[in-house]
Amino acid sequence: MSSSSDSRFFGRREFLRLGALTATTAGVAGTALGQNASPETAAPANGPASRVLGRTGLKVNVIGIGTLQITEPALIQAAMDLGVNYIDTARVYINGRSEETVGKAVQGRRDKVFISTKTPPGTKTKQGVVEGVEKSLKALGTDYIDVLELHQFNDASLVQNAELREALTELRKAGKLRFVGCTTHKNQADVLNALADDPDKFFDVVMLAYNFQSGQDVKDAIARVAKSGMGVVAMKTQNGGYKAEALGGISPHQASLKWVLGDPNITCAVPGMVDLVQIRENVEVMHSLKLTRVDEQILERYAGAVKPTYCGLCGKCEPGCPLGVQVSTVNRSLMYAEGYGDLALARETYHGIPGGASALACGDCADCTARCVRGLDIAAKMRQARELFA
Ligand code: SF4
Ligand code: SF4
Predict the structure, then answer these.
(1) 317 pocket-lining for ligand 2 (C-beta < 6 Å)
(2) Which of 91, 145, 156, 272 has its CA 20 to 30 A from that of 185?
């Protein structure tokens, strides 16, 4: 980061703290910030970096905007003004208000941006897909969706589901969808590998949770699916979105994005943004993708700061629970509360868990047998959720 760009995107207090970290880092690493800064970083006036979204051929700027928490069209318009041309929403976000907000934001500029939205999670029927798309089109105020994703493919067998494919094919023929994809939150490597192995190459785009703490299995699967011709969109890029307080006021979010985009198989990242400060901070990365040694140090500190609380949402612990508790979704709810600071979203997510699979089931469990690959105390997290969402 150049000092000039830092001072524009951080408050003075944060900026001074960043300077302190930089000095420390230079001492630890034996390098100076000036040596780490790339010419790219020093010239943020360059146009935004872009990549091609796999076989769709869409040229997408590498930072898109996630609208999980946005109800203000002006924020999306500000992001567009700063070069964002990929807007990610979903039928379920804020009970449809996110799509409505996107629709208002793109009025008069529809041909300048790509919109991706998603069917309601868990939609398994042709009728459900068609109805979901019709509602999305209405809310968005558009007659086509650039990328329609089937939401939450957490089981690799869904990749070959004939009924879902039939629905998408018909909607595409009707001109309502340009390209189709899916999202995955759990069992991500399995789902990606199934997509890479699909002889029909039916899906064009996949969106998955990916950040600097993701496992090698996910990274390898991303490489396979990108090689098969799919566009790959990264969400949950900010490692839980925990606030800068975890690092003494230094924001880890640019470094997190640079790490994700350092993987050439990722087309774009769509971090959720809730205000102009975040938009500016994230969009800046489009002009400076180089992950510096300082960034690496920030990420090391960030990983250490959130280690006791951060769940990778991989779901690998869930087979160890005899009661079928959806541990990763419970933890995602906690992340929305603790990291995103959005208690309403946290409650909505938690109370959307089917009866019997929430943390309430843990109340009668004497000894937790679910084991976390990251060493989290799952019983303690479930207890915390029960208390928070009671
Ligand atoms: S405490 Fe018991 S019910 Fe809860 S996640 Fe662990 S094994 Fe499952
Ligand atoms: S608790 Fe651990 S194993 Fe379970 S989903 Fe989170 S990171 Fe994965």
Answers:
(1) yes
(2) 145
